[in-house]
Amino acid sequence: MSGVTVSKDGVVTGNTYDKYGSSNPVVRRLMAGFERRLDELFALAAPSSVLDVGCGEGVLVHRWATRLGTGRVVGIDLEEESIQAGWREHRAPNLEYRVMEAQNLPFGENEFELASAIEVLEHVPDPEHTVSEMARCAARHLLVSVPREPLWRMLNMARGAYWPALGNTPGHLNHWSRRAFVELLSRHGEVVEVRSPFPWTMLLVRL
User: Fold this and answer.
1) What is the dihedral of CA 80, 92, 67, 108, to 10 degrees?
2) CATH fourth-level superfamily of 4-206
């Protein structure tokens, strides 16, 4: 499933392409590397509770909830038909979904051990504030990933996509190189692990 969502301030978010469900062999190979690195960092964090900001259709949070067993997992995202349809498909007793924006999270300090934003921060209008909110709600770790720039846009143009926008995927408001993304997250904690599955940057941050 995929869907594009527009927030109250007109920001386009959501998945323009269903990378998790793609049958394209190249995409499947890239996603295998992405998910392998993500699993490594999640295992290193070893959280007992998770807040996932921008959980999309629930593919990852459902997987994490299953892995945690009884540990609390909350996924949040905007209201959009395909997103909520995905939530109905990806259910678990310890998994809760909420419709909300990421700017001001209605959770207490240190309420979760880990807060994650997987392929989300490139969409939000104020990523510094969103990361601050995530760090407030998390007691131990942040787990985050974004497209690596300018590589991402170059690859889009190489496949003939989004030429009028110079390869920029619709809804991508923010763009980071690996170094710039590390610098951003370093303001909120210690970047303990960096992974670069092509063409992404993925970090585990200790708070």
Assistant:
1) 70
2) Vaccinia Virus protein VP39 (3.40.50.150)
Question: What are the residues facing 112 on neighbouring strands?
Answer: 138
Distance, in Å, from the CA atom of 122 to the CA atom of 173, rounded to the nearest integer, reads: 6
For the chain, give every domain's residue range. 4-206
| Nearest residue to 143 (alpha-carbon basis) of 58, 202, 65, 62 | 202
Give the model's confidence band at 21: pLDDT under 50 very low, under 70 low, under 90 confident, else very high.
low
Whole-number Å distance between alpha carbons of 49 and 41: 15
- How much of the chain exceeds pLDDT 90, in percent? 78
Radius of gyration of the chain (CA): 16
Task: For residue 126, give Cα distances in angstroms to 147, 150, 205.
Answer: 17, 20, 19
Non-local CB neighbours of 136 within 8 Å, separated by 6+ positions: 105, 109
* CA-closest candidate to residue 88, choices 100, 101, 75: 75
